[in-house]
Design brief:
Number of domains: 1
Helix content: over 70%
Order of helices and strands: H
Protein name: 7TM_GPCR_Srx domain-containing protein
Keywords: Membrane, Transmembrane, Transmembrane helix
Number of helices: 1
Radius of gyration: 19 Å
Distance between the termini: 64 Å
Structural class: mainly alpha
Strand content: under 5%
């Protein structure tokens, strides 16, 4: 029981880390796309 519960806790932390990582990556990609858009429009 203790072994399985600890494994579930590890899975929960891994899932939380993956979710936060995906959110961070998507936010960074959004910022990069906005910067590229601003640069391309300012060049025009």
């Amino acid at each position: 029981l203790s072994r399985s519960s600890s494994t579930y806790r590890k899975l929960d932390t891994v899932n939380a880390g993956l979710i936060t990582g995906v959110h961070c990556i998507s936010a960074i990609l959004n910022n990069i796309s906005m910067l590229v858009f601003l640069i391309s429009t300012s060049n025009l």
